Amino acid sequence: MRVYLACTVRGDRGTITTARHIHDCLVRLGHEVLTSHLLADDVDTAEDRLGDRDVFLRDLGWVEAADAIVAEASGSSYGVGFEVGYTLGRASTTGQRVLVLYDASRRGAVSRLISGMSDPRAHVLAYQSAADIDAFLEQHLGPV
């Protein structure tokens, strides 16, 4: 399964270690992660070389090509919210899966549009540990 892993690039990167864990879990489960490059420490500099329009077109193409979007949404990020909303808005016709994870200890800083999401096409996890993340991903995406 092709997975678009969404995480903040220009916002709060305080949960990048968790995003890397999510990536590694997805790979262990046999999934192809289209956005592994977002986990690099210098990702913003690398994206600057492409330019805003090229990043938008490339990423939108990947969002549309993905079977699922998995979003680490603990940090403030317009991009992650856009990617989740765009995918969710099309999910009834595309069949794409939407999984959103955020650090339970940061609930007060997470948009209520994320923490309160109750759309039947999406699954949300307020995680407390790496084990929570692993179990959630296995339950909803399983091994390939």
Question: Brief description of this entry?
Answer:
Helices cover 47% and strands 17% of the residues. It is of the alpha/beta class and 144 residues long.
Question: What would you note in describing this structure?
Answer:
With 144 residues, the chain is an alpha/beta fold. It has a single domain, classed as 3-Layer(aba) Sandwich (Rossmann fold). Helix content is 47%, strand content 17%. It contains six helices and five strands, in the order E-H-E-H-H-E-H-E-H-E-H. A five-stranded parallel sheet has the order 2-1-3-4-5, sandwiched between helices. Helix 1 packs across helix 6. The model has no long low-confidence stretch (mean pLDDT 92).
- Widest β-sheet, arrangement of strands: 2-1-3-4-5
How many helices? The count is 6
Strand tally: 5
Give, in order, the helices and strands.
EHEHHEHEHEH
- Helix- and strand-based class? alpha/beta
Kindly report the average pLDDT value: 92
Supply the CATH architecture: 3-Layer(aba) Sandwich
SSE blueprint and pairings:
Elements: E1 2-6, H1 16-28, E2 32-33, H2 43-50, H3 52-65, E3 68-72, H4 78-94, E4 97-103, H5 112-115, E5 122-127, H6 130-141
Parallel strand pairs: 1-2, 1-3, 3-4, 4-5
Helix pairs in contact: 1-6
Q: Keyphrases for this structure?
A:
144 residues; alpha/beta; 5-stranded parallel β-sheet; 5 strands
